[in-house]
Amino acid sequence: MTGFVEAYEKATGTTGVKDPPPMGLLTPQDLPTTGFLAREYAVCDRWFAPIPASTQPNRLMAISGFTERDITISGLLPDQHTLFHWLDAHHVRWRVYSAGLSFFTLMPQMWPELLTPRFRRLSDLSFDFVHEADDTRPQVIVVEPDYDDTPVHLSGHACDNHPPLPMSFGEAFLRQVYEALTSNPGRWQRTVMIVTYDEHGGFHDHVAPLQVHCPPPPGASYPPFETTGVRVPTIVASPLVQRGVAKHANLDHTSILALLAERFGQAGEPYSAAVAARTTAGIASVSAVLDSGPPRSDIPHIDPSALAANASLKTWAEPVNAMSNAYANAIEQFAQAHGKDALAKFPEIAHWLSP
């Protein structure tokens, strides 16, 4: 756990930095929404990225329990089995709300779904959560920020807390989600909100990853991973957790898939063989975080004070890395495949498309 500064200097070419950013931290005063959620709900202090890899592999682990890719590249993502396939097979209603372009834009198999009401703008979440009928409301919701890596920003600015973004955008995003979910007290009583990050982003940690064997799936050729990734910040906000507690269970993103299986699967049915293997290796379900007994009746409210930040608003930007190039390629191919339908759903991508 000693390589964070060396990796930073290798990547940036700096030497002798007195206060290297990877060793820094932010206080609760710097992060009013995150600080609020940590005080009022549960912090998971042993939640790890599933594998010691970058964005794409860890997000694939989060939505599938396995990854056909071990690195982030500029191409489209493999059309591997996802939690949406699992939910459909178990007749569970789901929906994705995005502040910007969805991560699933990178998966061609998801393009038809992107054009349906299953994918909506984040601005729709509050109205839907309050007013939608019980027989059509989603039982599982995925909420995505406006990712810094996307060349097109639907909300005017990225809000995923990716360095070097001002944190206020991400704090405002989290506040918007929490306020939407608590705007319907009856539904909030049955809600578990999980806030996590795909990987650690290069920032230091003193806790070593867990020893978890993770072989590649059939057809993938990369060597097995033998550990998880580094810990990532994770908060579980719900009436089903007590106020201001730290939970010490060993967890990672596949813990969410294990929770889905417990909630919506048959008794004793694992989410998949891959997730079951991680459970055997000591990775718990999110249910380990939840408390028994009746749900809390109180709904804490966030300070409504404005969150200030200085940044230039932008609707598009040139790709600068493999992930942003992947988005650029996906946008072009999505628009070519779905033409007017794609532009009708996401008119902002017209700024990016080739003439």
Question: What are the salient characteristics of this protein?
Answer:
355 residues, alpha/beta, Alkaline Phosphatase, subunit A, four-stranded mixed beta sheet, 10% strand
Q: Estimate the strand proportion.
A: 5-15%
Task: Give start-end ranges of low-pLDDT stretches.
Answer: none
Tally of individual helices: 11
Structural class: alpha/beta
What's the helical proportion of residues? Answer: 25-40%
User: Please, what is the average pLDDT?
Assistant: 94
Which CATH top level class fits? Alpha Beta
Shape field: globular
* DSSP summary, beta strand count: 11
Q: How many domains is the backbone divided into?
A: 1
Distance between the termini: 48 Å
CATH architecture: 3-Layer(aba) Sandwich
Strand order of the largest sheet: 6-9-1-10
Q: How do the helices and strands follow one another from N- to C-terminus?
A: HHEEHHEHEHEHHEEEEEEHHH
Report Rg.
20 Å
Largest sheet: 4 strands, mixed
- Indicate the CATH topology: Alkaline Phosphatase, subunit A
